[in-house]
Design brief:
The complex is a heterodimer of chains A (290) and B (276). Chain A is mainly alpha-helical and 290 residues long. Chain A has one domain (57-289): MetI-like (MetI-like fold, Orthogonal Bundle), CATH 1.10.3720. Chain A is built from 13 helices and two strands. In chain A, strands 1-2 form a two-stranded antiparallel sheet. Chain A is globular, with a radius of gyration of 24 Å. Chain B has two domains: 2-59, no CATH class; 66-270, Orthogonal Bundle (MetI-like fold), CATH 1.10.3720. The two termini of chain B are 38 Å apart. Chain B has 13 helices and no strands. Chain B has helices at residues 2-34, 39-42, 57-65, 68-99, 105-116, 124-133, 140-164, 168-176, 181-210, 214-218, 226-231, 241-261, 263-270. In chain B, helix 5 (105-116) packs antiparallel against helix 7. By secondary structure, chain B is mostly helical. The chains are: A mainly alpha (290), B mainly alpha (276). The interface between A and B is large, with 110 and 97 residues.
Chain lengths: 290, 276
């Protein structure tokens, strides 16, 4: 029944997407790998030469590398902890019967739709600015010294901004998962005299495990690439205090024009992301079979 | 008795949830309010919440003085263009994988997804150089191409999960009645697929509108969409809070409205069907 003709037709329909994605994956990545073994600076054209692993050695011994790696991990972990804990709490709260549930949900998910440069600028200038910001006005109102967020705690401030952007995502997914929780099981446990805490720990938490894993993995992929928020607020500084791997590679390739070094850093970032991706792909693949 | 308790409980939950919701929404609300203030009022040491002289002046200034509308238009072209081209490529692919699955369909889907896992910074240098050498740097065409490819896996996946839900028997029945492949697609599949395609379009316009790595790195003055244009306010110009707020409000308003319509699709699209 699945005729030869329809087989051929389906192959024809598939091929543009497959071909384009294949080129998109293989050409730039191949070029990055190739560049990473070259001495190649855009400011010195004509001096390209093969250097083996020299760029990788430079990248790993760059004084900014270890801080950047530590900052990347701190950023990812910090945002994950805030959004997962906050997301579970919000999902439980929003799942209760209340008045105006639809409106509250809209308020909570709104930050996800704000473009990164806008949220970074709004937080930087209008809320966290030590002179004109709203937080400074509050601090003065309480008789306190205003806190200079981006000078004294740059990474933590960025974590707050990014967590604000991603909390809606975690909440929405966990809330969707909550709504598929078996109500009868909940009620049966309540009849048996199980308190709300016991029910949360033994029914809600296991039910949310899968959704939480998905949240953690998908957010990690996106968080490893956080860029605009850093560019707009601190530019990676002061010093390397808020430089992540993504931002370090950007500085090396786009500001110092060191294509070879930037490419080596890019490959390191790809390897890091792939470690996370393998776990994510397994989860999604398992779901595809079910 | 139990009813009274449950009403009180509902009131407490309502108050708590509204409180938390307003705190989370506050930065957006504050931006919108500030956009109606004068510059002096916006940096007042004792900020006023509602009782200030409301003015539309900032919106006039932003629209007149800077080339705001040009950048807004760039955003529209880039977001819609990349989504529509992506749909054109993805619809046939998703259709064939959903209805004529082969042995390797699953591997193919997973492979497409894996291209999405590659961090953008890993291919920043080659894409920048390719764009420079083909004259596509700082052009809308260049960004449309890049964003089409960036979001293609998500488009294929979303469409696939929607097409999967269309019962295959209907197609078989149409085939029995002698419908050709073309009319099968046109008269049977299309009407059932439209809602899924619409949701996919919506989510991808949102993603493309807010995309902030390629838009910032591949554009300068000419083709910068709003993401890049607003980021340029981080220079001293950003000190004009009220105008920044007006520009920001206009940049996020269309997407906030689209986003509220697409809550459900968001979960499905961004988790690749892993959470429904």
């Amino acid at each position: 029944m699945a005729t030869q003709a329809s087989q051929t037709a389906s192959r024809l329909m598939l091929s543009p997407a497959v071909l384009l994605l294949f080129l998109w994956m293989i050409v730039p990545l191949g070029m990055t790998i190739y560049f990473s073994f070259l001495r190649f600076n855009l400011l010195m054209p004509g001096t390209e030469a093969f250097t083996g692993f020299e760029n990788y050695v430079y990248f790993f011994t760059d004084p900014a590398f270890w801080p950047a790696l530590a900052n990347t991990l701190t950023l990812v972990l910090g945002v994950l902890v805030i959004t997962v804990i906050g997301g579970v709490a919000l999902a439980v709260l929003l799942d209760q019967p209340m008045w105006g549930q639809g409106i509250v949900r809209v308020l909570v998910i709104a930050p996800f739709f704000v473009m990164p440069s806008v949220s970074a600028l709004v937080w930087k200038n209008m809320l966290m600015n030590p002179v004109n910001g709203l937080f400074a006005a509050f601090a003065r109102g309480l008789g306190l010294e205003p806190f200079d967020f981006f000078a004294d705690a740059p990474l933590a401030s960025i974590i707050v901004i990014v967590a604000w952007q991603w909390l809606p995502f975690a909440t929405l997914i966990l809330l969707t998962a909550m709504q598929s929780l078996d109500r009868e099981q909940m009620e049966a446990a309540e009849m048996d005299g199980a308190g709300p805490f016991w029910r949360f720990l033994h029914l809600t938490v296991p039910h949310l495990t899968r959704a939480t894993t998905v949240v953690v993995l998908i957010q990690t992929i996106f968080l490893l690439s956080v860029f605009a928020e850093i560019l707009v607020t601190t530019n990676g500084g002061p010093g390397t205090a808020s430089t992540t791997l993504t931002f370090l590679v950007y500085m090396q390739s786009m500001l110092q024009f060191d294509v070879g070094l930037g490419s080596a850093g890019g490959i390191v970032a790809v390897i890091l992301a792939n470690i996370v991706a393998i776990f994510l792909m397994r989860m999604i693949g398992r779901n595809l079979e079910a | 008795m139990s009813r009274a308790v449950s009403t009180r409980r509902k009131a407490v939950v309502t108050a708590l949830a509204w409180g938390v919701g307003l705190v989370i929404f506050f930065p957006i609300l504050w931006t919108v309010l500030t956009s109606f203030k004068t510059e002096g009022e916006a940096i007042n040491a004792h900020p006023s919440f509602l009782f200030f002289d409301w003015t539309l002046e900032n919106y006039h200034t932003v629209n007149e003085r800077s080339d705001y509308l040009a950048h807004f238009w760039n955003s529209v072209v880039i977001a819609l263009g990349s989504t529509l081209i992506g749909l054109l490529i993805a619809i046939p692919a998703a259709w064939s994988m959903a209805f004529v699955p082969g042995k390797r369909t699953k591997d193919l889907l997973m492979w497409m997804l894996s291209t999405k896992m590659m961090p953008a910074v890993g291919v920043l240098v080659p894409i920048y150089l390719l764009a420079r050498d083909t004259g596509l740097l700082d052009s809308k065409t260049g960004l449309v191409i890049v964003l089409t490819l960036v979001n293609l896996p998500i488009i294929v996946w979303m469409l696939y999960t929607y097409f999967k839900e269309i019962p295959g028997e209907i197609l078989e029945a149409a085939r029995m009645d002698g419908a050709s492949l073309g009319s099968e697609i046109l008269y049977v599949l299309t009407p059932m697929a439209v809602p899924g395609i619409a949701s996919t379009l919506l989510l991808n316009v949102i993603l493309a509108w807010n995309e902030s790595f390629w838009t910032l790195n591949l554009t300068a003055a000419n083709s910068a969409p709003l993401t890049a244009f607003i980021a340029s306010y981080s220079s001293p110009e950003g000190l004009f809070y009220a105008k920044l707020s007006a520009a920001s409000t206009m940049a996020i308003a269309p997407i906030l409205i689209l986003g509220w319509f697409s809550q459900k699709q968001l979960v499905r699209g961004l988790t690749f069907g892993a959470v429904k």
